[in-house]
Amino acid sequence: MNCMADYVRRMDISQLKTLIHVAELGSVSKAATRLGIAQPALSRQIRLMEAELNAPLFTRHGRGMVLTELGQRLLDPAGEILASLDKIRRLAVEGSTSYLGRVRVGVTPTVAEVATLPLVRAIRDAHPQLSLSFTSGFSGHLVEWLKRGELDCCVAYDTQESGLVRTRAILDEALLLVGSSKQRLAMDSPVTFKSLAGEHLVLPSPAHGLRNILDAYASRAGITLTSSLEVDSLTAMIDLVRGGFGMTILPLAPIHAQVLSGALTAAALIEPAPSRHVLIAYPADRPAMPAARFVGDAFAQVASDLVRTGRWAGRIIGD
Fold it and tell me: How far apart are CA 81 and CA 282, in angstroms?
C-alpha cells in the first residue's frame, strides 16, 4: 500500500480520467474515441498507472477490459478527487457578476417543448451577453455527448451519477395516459395501469428511455404493453394520438396547451403511478463552467414555476 500512497501524492489527473472512461466503456479504443485522444496515448497512461502501482488495474480479454479488484477499489476515490477539483474551481470563480461566452445545453424533446422559452428569458434577463446553444436528443445520447465534451450541461432522465457525470435531481415528473378528445380522459378520473393490458398504444421504441420506464411499470402491474405504433418523434406521437390511432403515456408539460384546448385529454395513472426523475447533469472529469451551473440553477427555477402554475405535473425534489 505504500507504493499506492506514493503514487496518489504525484498522480496525474488525466490518468484518473482515463481510468474512469475505460472502466465505464470496457475498451481503450472506445474511450479514445470519446475523449478524442489517440489510442496509444491512452494505453500508455494505463501502463504508467499500473507500473507506478506495481499492480494491474485491468484484466484484458477478447471483448475488452474489466477492472481488477484493485482497479475497482480505485474507481470511487478517483471520482471523488475529480469532484473535489470541480468544487475548488467553482469556489475560485464565486462572485462573478456577469457571464460571457457560450454554453452548450442538451435537452430532451419533451423538456425542450415546454422549458426552452422561459429558460432563455430567465438567462437573458440575468446575463444578456451569454450565448446559448441548444441540442435536443434522447436522454442517453445527451449524457454521452456530455461525457465526450460536446455539451456543457444537459437535462436528462434517471441518469446514474458516476466519476464522469455529476447530477442534480430537479423534478419527479408524473407520466399521464393521453388520448384524443374522443377518449374523454379526465385528470379527476384516474386509470389503473393494469387496465392498459390489451390496449393498442402509440409508444416510443425500446431504444427510448421512456419506453424502458413504461415497460418497467407495466411489469410491476403484471401486464405487457402492446404498441400498435412505435414512434420516437414527440410531434408525430401527439399527431397520431390526436388522429385516433391510439393512446400514449407522456408528461403533461409538452401537451398542456392541447389538453386545455380539448384537442387531447389526459388522466392520471395509478397502481402504480408512473414517474421519472428530471435531472441536470454536468461533467465531472473536467471543469464545469460557472455559466453552465447558472443555466442549471435557472432551469430548476423554471421547472418549479411550471409545476406551481400547473403546466408541469410532478413534484419538485426537495420541496
Answer: 16
